[in-house]
From TrEMBL, chains A, B:
<dbReference type="GO" id="GO:0004497">
    <property type="term" value="F:monooxygenase activity"/>
</dbReference>
<dbReference type="InterPro" id="IPR007138">
    <property type="entry name" value="ABM_dom"/>
</dbReference>
<dbReference type="InterPro" id="IPR011008">
    <property type="entry name" value="Dimeric_a/b-barrel"/>
</dbReference>
<feature type="domain" description="ABM">
    <location>
        <begin position="11"/>
        <end position="84"/>
    </location>
</feature>
<protein>
    <submittedName>
        <fullName>Antibiotic biosynthesis monooxygenase</fullName>
    </submittedName>
</protein>
<dbReference type="InterPro" id="IPR052936">
    <property type="entry name" value="Jasmonate_Hydroxylase-like"/>
</dbReference>
<keyword id="KW-0560">Oxidoreductase</keyword>
<dbReference type="Pfam" id="PF03992">
    <property type="entry name" value="ABM"/>
</dbReference>
<keyword id="KW-0503">Monooxygenase</keyword>
Length: 108, 108
């Protein structure tokens, strides 16, 4: 879950998930890890980057197509996690689906 | 710098900046704050979301057009910060320019 996603040449797709958690985060870390592991096995998954501090968490997952994103959204285990997120873990969140048009990398 | 960006209806653009910092972070926090304040004043700026933990930092800025992103990239004070980032603060980073096609918000 740490480090950079080794994405291919654009175009491809990104899902930007920004969230503020509620006070009740029991079981959250375990579920988050499970979801990353599960997402990684989905067709069209290209990588994920994630960071969280006190204010906000941002997870960006990368996908080959809108179709792959749709399938992941509808994955049954993922749906359970989404419901638990809404009912318990998240105070609020934003999801943005984007087409990546350009990328550049810098390494020291 | 904390909280959600109140973005308008898509389409608009996002710049996903993922970074790993080096050991030498002197002056980084101050510059980061300055850059967010400066970006906020640019034409076409729609908002910014940022999170950082030990592993990775992710900052997503939102813009009305590719033209606004280009102008911000070429802003002279921002160019100074970019150079300092490359020479000192960042071990590596990735920049992805995306077109946001869809968004949804959830509030508890």
């Amino acid at each position: 879950m740490n480090g950079f996603a080794k994405t291919p040449e654009p175009p491809y797709y990104a899902v930007i998930f920004s969230s503020q958690r509620s006070e009740d985060v029991a079981g959250y870390g375990e579920m988050a890890e499970k979801m990353v592991a599960l997402a990684s096995k989905q067709t069209g998954f290209l990588g994920v980057e994630s960071a969280r501090d006190e204010g906000l968490g941002i997870t960006v997952s990368y996908w080959d197509s809108l179709e792959s994103i749709k399938k992941w959204k509808e994955n049954s285990a993922h749906k359970v996690a989404q419901e638990k997120g809404k009912s318990t873990w998240y105070q609020n969140y934003a999801i943005r689906v984007c087409k990546v048009e350009r990328q550049s990398f810098f390494e020291m």
